[in-house]
Amino acid sequence: MGRFTGKVAVVTGAGSGIGRATALRLASEGAAVACLDLAEDAAAKTAARTCEEGGQGRAFACDVSDPVSVLASVEALVGNLGPPDAVCNIAGIGMFAHTVDQTLDGWDRILAVNLTGTFLMCQATLPYLLERSGNIVNAASNAGIKGQPYSAAYCASKGGVIALTRALACEYLERGVRINAVAPGGIDTPMHAQFALPEGASPALLARIMSPMGFGRPEEVAGLIAFVASDEARYVTGSVLSMDGGITA
Ligand code: NAP
């Protein structure tokens, strides 16, 4: 018996990086995992891997920034796997830019995926979680806790995820639904390809971002998410759990 045997878990951003590692980890502990991603083929690869490893996973296309897409994929996954017990909102995007060069389109997209997308997924799944004393784990970032250069939109979005997490945790304290966030530091995933350094970036400022311990691994963050989503974390809600090689210490 795994910690998630008989449970249904939803993971957004399941096609890559931390989301993929989380889907595989939860499936390995017994969950039937709904693997949601913008790229359905990537989600399908993750779902196929859960099955190869003896677990259960199904892929669903979902743009978390689109309320119609969110409602459609939640309806589809409930129809296929049953109502969710745990929802892991991991999908996210980012970019570096000097603030004076940050386009409004870029700002809007980062806020739409990272913050509004997290809100939409919480809103769409809370009715099920309320019936099952379920829980939500949101992907924040060290960038939502302390400042990071060339990252105004990303920092604002992740600070927003932390505030949203705490607000929901307070709202549902008496109703059996836990809502938490994890705040990774630099994790070795394909996301870093999105973070091309802006021209003239200061090495001294960039040094603030990286831990002397180097990068963390997506599987390590998945382990933390699995703990928070499990019944072992029964008394944990409204928390922001850092895994960042000490950079917010
Ligand atoms: P990743 O490897 O780029 O994976 C992100 C996944 O989200 C991708 O599969 C991506 O699909 C998907 N996605 C993007 N936009 C989406 C949308 N609108 N709807 C649904 N799915 C969407 O990134 P990661 O490093 O694993 O990051 C996962 C989360 O952890 C993010 O929220 C990120 O901000 C956070 N985080 C990461 C780090 C780090 O150092 N890696 C540190 C702190 C926090 P496409 O590939 O098709 O775009």
Task: Describe the protein's architecture and organization.
The protein is built from seven helices and seven strands. The chain is an alpha/beta fold and 249 residues long. The protein has a seven-stranded parallel beta sheet with strand order 3-2-1-4-5-6-7, with helices on both faces. α1 runs parallel beside α2 (40-52), α3 (67-81) runs parallel beside α4 (104-132) and α4 (104-132) runs parallel beside α5 (152-171). The longest helix is centred in the middle third of the chain and has 29 residues, at 104-132. The chain starts with 7 loop residues before the first strand and ends in a 6-residue tail after the last strand. 47% of the residues are buried. The mean pLDDT is 97. The structure holds NADP nicotinamide-adenine-dinucleotide phosphate (NAP). NADP nicotinamide-adenine-dinucleotide phosphate is lined by residues 12-13, 15-19, 37-39, 42, 62-65, 90-94, 113, 117, 139, 141, 184, 186-187, 189-191.
Question: How does the SSE layout of this entry go?
Answer:
Elements: E1 8-12, H1 17-28, E2 32-37, H2 40-52, E3 56-61, H3 67-81, E4 86-89, H4 104-132, E5 135-139, H5 152-171, E6 178-184, H6 203-206, H7 218-229, E7 240-243
Parallel strand pairs: 1-2, 1-4, 2-3, 4-5, 5-6, 6-7
Helix pairs in contact: 1-2, 1-7, 3-4, 4-5
The structure holds NADP nicotinamide-adenine-dinucleotide phosphate.
